[in-house]
Amino acid sequence: MKVVMKNVKILLFFFGFAAVMVLLFGWGLPVVFQLSLHNDYIRSLTLLVVFSMVVLVKRLNWSNYLVFAVAIFSFLGMMIDTAGNPVTNKPLEWIVSPIGQLQLDQDINNYAPGQYVISDNLSILKPGGEMVTLSTVWLYLYRCAQYLVLYTIVGTLLAAIRGNKPERWPVPAAKVDEVLTPEMEQRVAAELKRREAAGTTLKVVPEEVQEHVRQLKKDGQLILAIKLVRQHTDLPLGEAKRYVEEM
Questions:
Q1: Rounded to whole angstroms, how far apart are CA atoms 59 and 159?
Q2: How far apart are alpha carbons 212 and 228 in whole angstroms?
């Protein structure tokens, strides 16, 4: 019976995976593609949202692979969002303004049902009416530089925001007054003996606990402060007392 249920679960998982793929490629991606044709901001916003999620979820920073994320998403932006949008194209318009007016057009060729090819054409309309066609290489280079700057700024800000959040919440002050039961005392004593035997004595008070210890000492509750230190370290009573007094 267990084998049958296991096989049924595998088949159901396969069916669910197939359904998701069919919906994604048969409905989701075409809808996104159509939206991107009628909205110049969809591609850049989608890339920005995905980049932000990757940085926040993976806790990336400049010492932890953020540079690779910036490089990869800049390349994707250069290839996917080559045409850009009116906002990101403003600097490019300012660059070519001494020569003429920037013209950026897209040609959409439908070779077969569901098969599209989009080509971007970059040109400058001079005041005299002459149209100068530029190589799209310059457009790719500009878009790559633009996304490098954008993702560098966004990645730095997100890394700073994410880095300021503590890994663990501070120990609530209400837990300081909790009394250990005899059973808990025995377990703590056994754990201390085990650590002493293994040579892994913990003598560093966690930072989130130090603030509570200082506050208790300030309030004159030295016994509770010493007890809190001993609950979070393997310090003996004498060392815990000396630690609190020297804070």
A1: 7
A2: 8
- The average pLDDT across 183-208 equals 64
Examine the pLDDT at 111 and tell me if it is beyond 90. Answer: no
Domain boundaries, the chain: 39-163, 173-246
State the pLDDT at residue 130: 86
Per-residue pLDDT tens digits for 76-106:
999 888 888 888 888 888 888 888 888 877 6
The predicted pLDDT at position 112 comes to 60
What pLDDT sits at residue 154? Answer: 95
The per-residue DSSP string of the chain comes to -HHHHHHHHHHHHHHHHHHHHHHIIIIIHHHHHHHHHH-TTHHHHHHHHHHHHHHHHTT-BTTBBHHHHHHHHHHHHHHHSSS--TTTTHHHHHHHTTT-EEEEEEEEEEEETTEEEEEEEEEEE-TTS-EEEE-HHHHHHHHHHHHHHHHHHHHHHHHHHHHTS-SSPPPPGGGGGPPPPHHHHHHHHHHHHHHHHHT-------HHHHHHHHHHHHTT-HHHHHHHHHHHS---HHHHHHHHHH-
Rg (CA), the chain: 31
**Bridge partners, 120 (sequence order):** 106
Q: Which residue shows structure tokens 């998701």?
A: 20
Residue 84, burial from CB neighbour count under 10 angstroms (0-12, 13-18, 19+):
buried
Please state, in angstroms and rounded to a whole number, the distance separating the CA atoms of residues 39 and 31: 12
How many CA within 13 A on the CB side of residue 232? 19
Task: Give the tens place of pLDDT for each residue, 55-78.
Answer: 998 889 988 889 999 999 999 999
CA-nearest of 78, 126, 82, 77 to 103 is: 126
